[in-house]
Every structure is written in structure tokens, then in C-alpha cells.
């Protein structure tokens, strides 16, 4: 067997020669104190707040839609009632099948009075 010789020829290396080289790497200091846990509050976090706001806005929008729908239905109902009265007045006939002018004149008078009020 040949005797082991050291390879110390040339410049010496600057790297450490010990085996646990990872332990010499720089580590970030830990400034957090582990002994004092933060007290938890019952305050909702941001996603919960956003969700609550969305629900409130959705409820407002739904209430507004229902109100608009109710107003629209009321207008339609009033228009149908008015149209039915007008149809009845125009469709009245005498015994011989002639249209009744009395009801037609009242309808025209009513329309003129409405135009004057506007």
C-alpha cells in the first residue's frame, strides 16, 4: 500500500473543511416573541366584512326591484281598468244596433278635462 499524502500543494482553500457546512450559513434573526400570543378578537376579518357588505347591497337591490315591480303592476292594473271602462262605453248599443252617443260623448268630455288638468 502506498502511504496517503496530503494534497496541500498550491494555495490553501478559503472554504471551511468541516463537514457541517450548512450550519455556517447565515440565518435570519427571529424577532418574533413566541411567549406572548396575540389575543383573538371577535371582530370579522376582511373577507367576512366584504361578504356582509355584498349581502346588504343585494338585499337593498332586491327590495328596490320588488318596489319597482309592485309599482309597475299597479300601473298596469290601473291601465287595464281604464281600458275596460272605455271598451264598455264604446261597445254599448241601442236596441237597433246603433252605437250610444251619450256614453261616447261622456268619454270624450272626460278626456278633454284630463288634458286641461295637465
Give a description of the structure.
Residues 1-11 have a biased composition (Polar residues). It holds the Pfam family rRNA_processing. Residues 39-51 have a biased composition (Basic and acidic residues). By secondary structure, the chain is mainly α. The chain has helices at residues 46-91, 101-117. The longest helix is centred in the middle third of the chain and has 46 residues, at 46-91. The chain is rod-shaped, with a radius of gyration of 47 Å. The model has no long low-confidence stretch (mean pLDDT 83).
Features:
single chain; Thyroid transcription factor 1-associated protein 26; mainly alpha; Fyv7/TAP26; about 120 residues
Secondary-structure content class: mainly alpha
Q: Work out the number of β strands.
A: 0
Number of helices: 2
**What does the main sheet amount to?**
none
Mean pLDDT: 83
Strand content: under 5%
Order of helices and strands: HH
Rounded radius of gyration (Å): 47 Å
Give the terminus-to-terminus CA distance. Answer: 124 Å
- Helix % is 40-55%
Poorly predicted residue ranges: none
Shape: rod-shaped
Short description:
The protein is mainly alpha-helical and 118 residues long.
